[in-house]
Amino acid sequence: MGLGNAIVIGAGIGGLTCAIALARRGVAVTVIEQAPAIREVGAGLQISPNGLAVLRALGLRRRLLERGAVRGRAVVLRAHDAAGDVARLDLMRLPETQTYLFAHRADLVDVLVRAAREANVSFEMGVEVTSVLPGAVPKITLADGSTRQAELIVGADGIHSRARPALNGADAAFFTQQVAWRATVPNTVDHPDVAMVTMGPARHLVSYPLRGGEMVNLVAVEERQTWAEEGWHHPDDPAHLRAAFAGFGGLAGALIEAVEAPTLWGLHRHPVAALWQKQSVALLGDAAHPTLPFLAQGANMALEDAWVLAREVAQDGPGALPRYQNARMSRVARVIKAAEGNAWRYHLRPGPLRFAAHNALRLGSRVAPGRMLGAFDWLYGEDVTGGVKLS
User: Fold this and answer.
1) Is residue 181 within 8 Å of 241, Cβ to Cβ?
2) How far is CA 47 from CA 61, 71, 102, 302, in A?
């Protein structure tokens, strides 16, 4: 028995993608979003080949490129206190079908909203969900006391999800003693089409171009004891960022000096939800598995989740939800573990360990670049669409 209708909570990347994938399979979808309008928020994101496979299957890759998405040529590692590259992961060695893009989050959201409207997805904006009740016919309660129900409710409402506690109870997130500043600056430094990771003691800076190279996206991570609130929309004084990265010169230093309006994000670790689905309610993306930003996979995992969830339930209804969780759990766990492992590699302090680690990276990058890229086959080579097109 197929699925007739669904409610998706949250108009972010995962929620919109799920809405499109369901609607193009004949499901009547309503997206409920707390914000009064879908406006430009956030900054840049890296869309790796595994996430781009979903956008390609939806016929949206070309639209994103038309909005100025930049094709990434490499991931480059540099030390903050030395000239030259420590290592270079050459993304141009990937097959042509495995393109790696740098895009502005707002541009991707705009592309997804347009596609959702074209698929006759309905939107209810400025509507706050206060509770989710699983059941044979699941229900949500809104802030005005009214209710909505559908055959399927999808919680794509992020780290502060209302759907997640309905399935799992409250979780025990903890501060990782790391913070991240985010900002965009004009590209006055002729930043190459690469994701550049400038590594320093207990901190690192990631930078890459956006919108045809007109601007540069920055994510600056620092280890520190002082607690910071979760979420990437909290404004901060750029002087705090510059003080934390005072030892960074060259291109990285110039980029940090240009920052005018950063946001500060306290990085908190949440457990992967034990239950992603129950009684016709499902979770996807950060609502199910918040991911630290050290592998650039948060948006990509949400894209994958959205496709798999829609594929499983569109024909067989909510009874297929266990297949969705089973298909995603082990992969997401591996991605989260890999992301956590990157943090210490980027933050090594001067000394024998850093010397040995950087030398190993330098040697591997120059002697066996194909092998270095091949270490990511498990991640970038995954295509959850199986070649199916819904465009």
Assistant:
1) yes
2) 10, 10, 6, 11
Express each pLDDT in 223-234 by its tens digit.
Answer: 998 877 777 678
pLDDT (mean) for 297-317:
96
The verdict on pTM exceeding 0.85 is yes
| Residue 84 included in any domain | no
**Residue 329 domain flag:** yes
Parent domain of 288: 5-43+105-171+271-342
User: How far apart, in whole angstroms, are the C-alpha atoms of residue 269 and residue 375?
Assistant: 26
Query: What tokens appear for 55 in the block?
Result: 């956008």
What six digits make up the tokens of 60? 């949206």
Catalytic residue numbers, as ranges: 208
